[in-house]
Design goal:
With 446 residues, this protein is an alpha/beta fold. It is built from 15 helices and ten strands. Strand 6, helix 8 and strand 7 form a beta-alpha-beta unit. The chain is globular. The relative contact order is 0.11.
């Protein structure tokens, strides 16, 4: 468990990195930085680091102090681990902030920047509105930040109306989408509903069906390599892993009597054992279906529970849960396990920067959940009908995606930095989106 002195040391290190990186002068004529300059807006610590000092006292969360270790990657899964951590998705704001401090085209001059990053830990700040004593004041979430931006160097905000600013909120966008007029509040804060923030680009773990401000970026997995050798070593292990199970579901739910896709998956998996005992399984599989029970969050910080079964499965089932998206989608890709989706909102309409829509048919299988739940479609029949050569091609495509959906460790080797990861693609996408918005804004003024 992370101690308070340890947390204070971590906070001091972040301050040191901010001073070193943000105040450094980079050649303004560097050709590799043309149209890529970013300025990190200096925010008072109440908007980020101060939110971490009470990491063991937030409501609902017993203690997220251990997940602050290694600049938000969490503690290592074991002492000798070089790449595996007990990562929590909520810490993506810290991970992104730390990686941003290593970005190669930072400028201390905001007027020279193509984009401005706000290191605001809004997902953590939201806890007091979502679960804590300020639940009835959820419409106020973000107003203090806006007041600061208006009064501290106000020209930076006003020159483009916030269009050139971007921020990471490590939660689904639904958690920030409650109308400010909702009384009493039902769920969520009103950050994305405030007119003051309509123009900024917000990177979330899940976007709404009608995203305006936000863009979904991958959930952090537990794998954060620091060198190209470590990444390549994992890729070799994935490629040579023996796939003895046709399909796997890692998750909870599906135990209610109400018809739903998770219930149908569990039922089909349980019944698959009868098929295994009475019939020779085709395509060399020894098992048709496997379930890794992750009820009550027992898998969340323990990748050992699900990574080995995923490495042994050809297909990983990714049904929606409380919300459409799943961290398991990215865990499965990391294991070379071909994702099976049951609705587009789980990934196809979410992560277009990292997994282009037009390529989904090359690395995933889509089975409408209605066909399974109400139409009697067996998932196993669909998957066993895919030729083995096609399965191999799909797995190779999954492995091509792998470096793009993981977040490499901060301070990684120069060799690994030649491979764009989830952070690199998110930053490129943010800059591109900001430029498009500014162009539209400028055109509308003519």
């Amino acid at each position: 468990m992370a101690s308070r002195p340890g947390i204070l040391i971590w906070v001091a290190l972040i301050f040191f990195f901010e001073l070193v990186y943000c105040e450094s002068v980079i050649d303004p004529d560097a050709p590799e930085c043309t149209d890529r300059w970013i300025h990190i807006r200096r925010l008072p610590t109440r908007f980020n680091l101060d939110l971490l000092t009470n990491c063991s006292e937030y409501p609902v969360f017993d203690d997220f102090c251990p997940y602050l270790a290694n600049h938000g990657l969490g503690q290592k899964t074991h002492n000798n681990s070089q790449s595996w951590y007990r990562s929590d998705p909520l810490m993506l704001e810290l991970v992104f902030h730390r990686r941003m401090l290593e970005y190669s085209c930072l400028t201390s001059d905001p007027t020279a920047a193509d984009a401005i990053f706000l290191p605001y830990y809004g997902g953590i700040d939201a806890i007091r509105y979502l679960f804590g004593p300020e639940v009835n004041s959820s419409f106020e979430h973000g107003l203090e930040l806006y007041e600061f931006l208006q009064h501290d160097s106000p020209e930076l905000w006003r020159r483009n109306g916030g269009h050139d600013h971007f921020v990471v909120l490590a939660r689904p966008a639904w958690d920030f989408s409650q109308s400010p007029d909702k009384d009493p509040p039902i769920w969520g804060t009103s950050f994305l509903q405030l007119p003051e923030f309509y123009n900024i680009t917000v990177l979330t773990l899940e976007s709404r069906p009608w995203p305006w401000q936000e863009q979904a970026i991958p959930y952090p997995t537990s794998f954060h390599p620091a060198t190209l050798a470590l990444l390549d070593s994992w890729l070799r292990r994935v490629r040579h892993s023996r796939r003895t199970t046709l399909m796997l579901f890692a998750g909870g739910g599906g135990t209610s009597k109400t018809p739903n896709i998770r219930r149908s998956i569990r039922s089909e998996c349980l019944n698959s054992s009868k098929y295994e005992n009475s019939t020779r399984i085709p395509n060399g599989y020894s098992k048709l279906c496997d379930i890794v029970d992750c009820s009550n969050g027992i898998c969340e910080h323990d990748p050992i529970r699900y990574m080995k079964p995923m490495l042994q499965a050809s297909f990983c089932l990714q049904p929606p849960g409380d919300t459409p998206t799943r961290r398991s989608t990215f865990d499965g890709i990391l294991a070379g396990c071909i994702p099976v989706f049951f609705e587009d909102l789980t990934a196809k309409s979410q992560y277009g920067w990292h997994m282009p829509k037009e390529e989904f048919g090359e690395f995933s299988v889509f089975i409408p959940k209605e066909d399974v739940v109400f139409g009697g479609q067996r998932i196993m029949d669909v998957l066993m009908g895919i030729p083995r050569a096609e399965v191999r091609r799909m797995r190779e495509k999954v492995m091509e995606l792998m470096p793009k959906i993981l977040y490499r460790r901060h301070g990684s080797s120069l060799g690994l930095r030649t491979r764009k990861d989830a952070f690199d693609i998110a930053v490129e996408g943010s800059i591109s989106r900001i430029k498009s918005k500014l162009k539209i804004s400028f055109t509308s003024m003519i």
